[in-house]
């Protein structure tokens, strides 16, 4: 969800105003994803490296996420949106952790869209943490399960099909590195606060036009 800061700057507004507009975009995109239908949507809300931003901006982002979890609760229940927060929980405030646990519990039975919010998240860190977790005695799948535990992921999340980055950058920035192995990447120049249903549907259209081979031969040429 890149481009909040530049969106605000273009309008002569402080960066937190861009994040607030980004929060509105989250609401619109989640509704569009439910309708699409998309079954799993992971949003990169705050990376481990984002702690390096000015204190004021970090606090504004934390407040925004907390408010979002409170204000969206009923809408999630109504629309069948299950919330799962992935990432570290030991550096964010106790209040935010409580809100996260509360909404995860309240929406646990919702089954239309699994909305995963990545908060204090680093994909590399998750992989390192998974390697340090105690193993389970069943061979091959073991590491994958440890990775799920390290990212607080719920079981049964399918492999990642499509990764969208807004805001014109062409990099993954420590997001879902393992999961992106065969994901289709779509980069768009739109700043996140301007991203909405049309942009999501356009990305899904582009995804459907891709020839996914998974290292094998195209179904079109085989
Ligand atoms: C990156 O844009 C965006 C973020 C670091 C924060 C994303 C957060 C939100 C969209 C809102 C809060 C989230 C939820 C789930 C309610 P940037 O600030 O790096 O933009 P720039 O590259 O233009 O400076």
Brief characterization of the structure:
The chain has 222 residues and is α/β, with parallel strands linked by helices.
Describe this structure in words.
The protein is an alpha/beta fold and 222 residues long. The chain has one domain: Undecaprenyl pyrophosphate synthetase, CATH 3.40.1180. The protein has eight helices and five strands. The strands form two sheets. The chain has a three-stranded parallel beta sheet, with helices on both faces. Strands 4-5 form a two-stranded parallel ribbon. Helix 5 (94-106) links the parallel strand 2 and strand 3. The model has no long low-confidence stretch (mean pLDDT 95). Residues 1-6, 19, 22-23, 26, 43, 45, 50, 61, 64-65, 68, 117, 167, 192 line the site of farnesyl diphosphate (FPP). Farnesyl diphosphate (FPP) is lined by residues 1-6, 19, 22-23, 26, 43, 45, 50, 61, 64-65, 68, 117, 167, 192.
Q: Kindly state the number of beta strands.
A: 5
> Bound small molecules, which ones?
farnesyl diphosphate
Q: Uncertain regions: pLDDT < 50 for 5+ in a row?
A: none
Domain count: the total is: 1
Q: What's the story with the biggest beta sheet?
A: 3 strands, parallel
The average pLDDT is 95
Radius of gyration: 18 Å
Reported by name, the CATH topology is: Undecaprenyl pyrophosphate synthetase
**What percentage of the residues does DSSP assign to strands (E)?**
5-15%
User: Per the principal axes of the C-alpha atoms, what is the gross shape?
Assistant: globular
Total of helices: 8
Query: Please, what is the CATH homologous superfamily?
Result: Decaprenyl diphosphate synthase-like
Strands in their spatial order, largest beta sheet: 1-3-2
Intertermini distance: 37 Å
